[in-house]
């Protein structure tokens, strides 16, 4: 028998969708995916999510959301979806295959698989995760007030992150592997005009160091004919701004995505091009990528799924 609602992914969007779907008697089943709780579980301190006046950790907040969804009746299961067979005309239930080989059918599906930050691939990035390494300036920049930080990247995202951090930190270094920025002219101008932003051209990061967190970066500068110059740069925080990778591969080509791979939705709803399939959170959000905006879209996805089922007279 087909489920009324299947939720794929367990970040703020997935759990919020589960809370709303449960309260609407949709009896949702949620599969946690490869990283239960999503990326937020790797964030140490959270101070910008409403309802936590003293702050909290990413892990604790996701456990709270999980417990709330569970209390309201969500069937939370371990596992991940490896294949989908979506009914493009809405006449048949959607079919998904799990990593254990089982298959499920659902009349509505909410995709909330998130987007993963791109990393350089250094072992030290994992070593210092939550201890000076971050992929979200707006999430963690507050903790670096009056400190020295570095931003890796040369595109619009990196310039935006650098500008934001410059409003908080004492000094911001931009580590750029080429001799030009890829950002728009307007963004470049703002960065170059900022008094406390310094661009390190033709430079790459070889590693990080520090006893109880990031204290500096091992850098190498390509000086052309003069060869390479290796040196250490003392910093308190290391921010990755080289892009995000939306976790949408398994849903393609049935579900339409943009050139970056983010799932396209029919604004202001969360509906995709496939009837009964909705996308919420970072997998459909190339712009904000915040826990609170993801939670809000999870709410909308559950309501969209309810309306769809009501129209089909399935609830």
Give a structural overview:
This protein has seven helices and 17 strands. The protein has helices spanning 12-23, 58-71, 123-127, 137-140, 156-166, 185-193, 291-311; strands at residues 3-8, 29-31, 75-77, 81-85, 94-98, 103-111, 115-117, 133-134, 148-152, 171-175, 197-200, 203-209, 216-222, 228-234, 237-240, 244-246, 277-279. Helix 1 runs parallel beside helix 7. The strands form four sheets. Strands 1, 2, 3, 4, 5, 6 and 17 form a seven-stranded mixed β-sheet that branches. Strands 8-15-9-10-11 form a five-stranded parallel β-sheet. The protein folds into two domains: 3-116 and 244-311, 3-Layer(bba) Sandwich (FAD/NAD(P)-binding domain); 119-240, FAD/NAD(P)-binding domain, CATH 3.50.50. The longest helix has 21 residues, at 291-311. It is α/β, with parallel strands linked by helices and 315 residues long. Strand 13 and strand 14 form a beta hairpin. The protein is elongated and about 70 Å long. The mean pLDDT is 94.
């Amino acid at each position: 028998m087909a489920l009324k609602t299947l939720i794929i992914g367990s970040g703020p969007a997935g759990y919020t969708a589960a809370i709303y779907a449960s309260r609407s008697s949709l009896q949702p089943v949620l599969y946690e995916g490869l990283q239960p709780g999503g990326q937020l579980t790797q964030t140490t301190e959270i101070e910008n999510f409403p309802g936590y006046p003293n702050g909290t950790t990413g892990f604790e907040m996701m456990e709270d959301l999980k417990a709330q969804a569970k209390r309201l009746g969500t069937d939370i299961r371990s596992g991940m979806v490896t294949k989908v067979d979506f009914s493009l005309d809405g006449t048949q239930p959607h079919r998904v295959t799990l990593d254990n080989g089982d298959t499920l059918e659902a009349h509505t599906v909410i995709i909330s698989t998130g987007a993963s930050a791109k990393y350089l691939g250094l072992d030290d990035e994992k070593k210092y995760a939550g201890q000076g390494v971050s992929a979200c300036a707006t999430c963690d920049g507050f903790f670096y007030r009056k400190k020295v930080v570095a931003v890796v990247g040369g595109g619009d995202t990196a310039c935006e992150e650098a500008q934001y951090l410059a409003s908080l930190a004492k000094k911001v270094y931009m580590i750029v592997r080429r001799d030009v920025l890829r950002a728009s002219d307007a963004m470049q101008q703002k960065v170059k005009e900022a008094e406390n932003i310094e661009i390190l051209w033709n430079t790459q990061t070889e590693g990080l160091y520090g006893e109880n967190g990031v204290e500096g970066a091992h850098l190498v500068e390509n000086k052309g004919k003069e060869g390479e110059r290796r040196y250490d740069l003392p910093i308190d925080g290391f921010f990755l701004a080289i892009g995000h990778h939306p976790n949408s591969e398994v849903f393609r080509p049935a579900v339409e995505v943009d050139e970056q791979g983010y799932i396209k939705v029919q604004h202001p709803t969360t509906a995709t091009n496939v009837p009964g399939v909705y996308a919420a959170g970072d997998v459909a959000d190339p712009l904000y990528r915040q826990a609170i905006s993801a939670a809000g879209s999870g709410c909308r996805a559950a309501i969209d799924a309810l309306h769809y089922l009501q129209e089909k007279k399935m609830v």
